[in-house]
Amino acid sequence: MVYFLLTISFILHGILILIIMVLFKKVKQAEELELRQKQVASEIEEVFNQYLMEIKEENEKMDTWLNHTSTSEADHRPQEPTKTEKPEEQNDEDYSPPLPVQEEAEYVPSLPSRVMTMYNSGMDMEEIARELNLGKTEVELLVKFQHTK
Question: Which of 1, 44, 83, 103 is deepest in the core (most CB within 10 A)?
Fold first, then answer.
């Protein structure tokens, strides 16, 4: 009986050692995966930093170019009156904004609405396609999409 219990004990110990080894491998793989993810994250961060630096350099170049062109244009522009100097012709009290022109806006129904109106009035798909100069399949798709909504 003692030999039987010793044998079962050895088998159980062997199984437990195997389980511990498998778990150790899993933990090691998880650590390696985490390390790779950190490396990828740092590489992505480096790429973004390089990209941002390039954009910053381009912005600085554009800023200097704009400053250079604006100063050269300012030299060639005629002198404009400053804001404190108001021409005598303009009087703020007499000003009234222009009135919008009242035009009748003509309602033009959309293509799907025209197709559905014709379909609901009992027209055949081929007739609708001929009337609107569309393909039969296109009309069928428009009707199908409108029914699914």
Answer: 44
3-state DSSP: the chain helix, strand, coil percent, rounded to 5?
75, 0, 25
Reported for 41-48, long-range contacts at CB under 8 A and 24+ positions apart, including other chains, are: none
pLDDT tens, 61-112? 999 988 888 777 666 655 555 555 555 555 567 777 777 777 777 788 888 9
Give the span between the Cα atoms of 115 and 135, in whole angstroms. Answer: 12
**Cβ count near 25 (within 10 Å):** 10
Q: Are 129 and 138 in contact (CB under 8 A)?
A: yes
Check if the beta carbon of residue 105 is closer than 8 Å to that of residue 97.
Answer: no
In a domain, 19, yes or no: no
d(Cα 17, Cα 19) in Å, to the nearest integer?
5
pTM (predicted TM-score): 0.36
Q: Which region, left, alpha or beta, applies to residue 125 given φ > 0 means left and ψ of -120 to 50 means alpha?
A: alpha
| Residue range of the domain that includes 136 | 109-149
Q: How many domains does the chain have?
A: 1
pLDDT value at residue 5:
93
Q: Is residue 129 part of a domain?
A: yes
